Amino acid sequence: MNGRILIIEDEVTIADLERDYLELSGFRVRIAARGDEGLSMALHEDVDLVILDLMLPEIDGFEICRQIREEKNIPIILVSAKKDDIDKIRGLGMGADDYITKPFSPSELVARVKAHLDRYNRLVSARVQKNEILEIRGLKIDKTARRVWVNGEETSFTTKEFDLLTFLAEHPNHVFRKEELFREIWDMESLGDIATVTVHIKKIREKIEFNSARPQYIETIWGVGYRFKM
Ligand code: CA
């Protein structure tokens, strides 16, 4: 199984033991020996699961767990040396997925890592399958793959055309001013102005409308802006 595991653990022998077993099972493993370092890696690097020791220098595991949870829903397995901590974890409802007390058998840890990653991957893929497709009459937009079909035929869009079309289609019957659309789709540093929006709308219409003069998807509201007709 593939998976990037972050071990946040200040006891080198335990961290190394965990890493050895996880690597034997095919996981990629990184170790952080300090709380602050581990937290930064968990938040800013690609990590699929965290094994988190509670008692750590700089920032303890409780605080790290809380801060990871604010940003990410990756599985977190807490590791504790004391029974007291486990009672505290239960009481706090701090968002950890599991906990394990030292001493533990490394194969037990590996089994739990696999179980949590399995569950997490299933959740993620279920969510992607549910949300990725927008279908409006003859128009089908796959948001995840960034592909568009018009009456069953795949049509290519530039990045901004795709973003603009998708934004409008996700807010049907809402009239947007050109200024609003420009702010929404183009970042602040972009050169250009609301005329850019007009040009992109024209190009999108050429691709999705049967007759651009009588659009069935993106309607012009004269003097205001555009509306995606539901
Ligand atoms: Ca420790």
Which tags fit this structure?
12 strands, five-stranded parallel β-sheet, 2 domains, Rossmann fold, Arc Repressor Mutant, subunit A, elongated, 230 residues, alpha/beta, binds calcium ion, four-stranded antiparallel β-sheet, single chain
Can you give me a brief rundown of this structure?
With 230 residues, the protein is α/β, with parallel strands linked by helices.
Describe this structure in words.
The strands form 3 sheets. A 5-stranded parallel beta sheet has the order 2-1-3-4-5, sandwiched between helices. A 4-stranded antiparallel beta sheet has the order 6-7-8-9. The chain has a 3-stranded antiparallel beta sheet with strand order 10-12-11. The protein has helices spanning 12-24, 35-44, 61-71, 83-92, 106-131, 159-170, 178-185, 194-208; strands at 4-8, 28-32, 49-53, 76-80, 98-101, 133-136, 139-142, 147-150, 153-155, 175-177, 218-221, 225-228. The longest helix has 26 residues, at 106-131. By secondary structure, it is α/β, with parallel strands linked by helices. It contains 8 helices and 12 strands.
Overall shape: elongated
The SSE string, one letter per element, is EHEHEHEHEHEEEEHEHHEE
Give the strand order, joined by hyphens, for the main sheet. 2-1-3-4-5
What are the low-pLDDT stretches, counting only 5+ consecutive residues below 50? Answer: none
* Number of separate helices: 8
The H-level CATH homologous superfamily of the largest domain, spelled out, is: Response regulator
Strand content: 15-25%
What class would the helix/strand composition place it in?
Answer: alpha/beta
Question: How far is the N terminus from the C terminus?
Answer: 44 Å
User: Which CATH architecture of the largest domain is right?
Assistant: 3-Layer(aba) Sandwich
What is the share of helical residues? 40-55%
| Total separate domains | 2
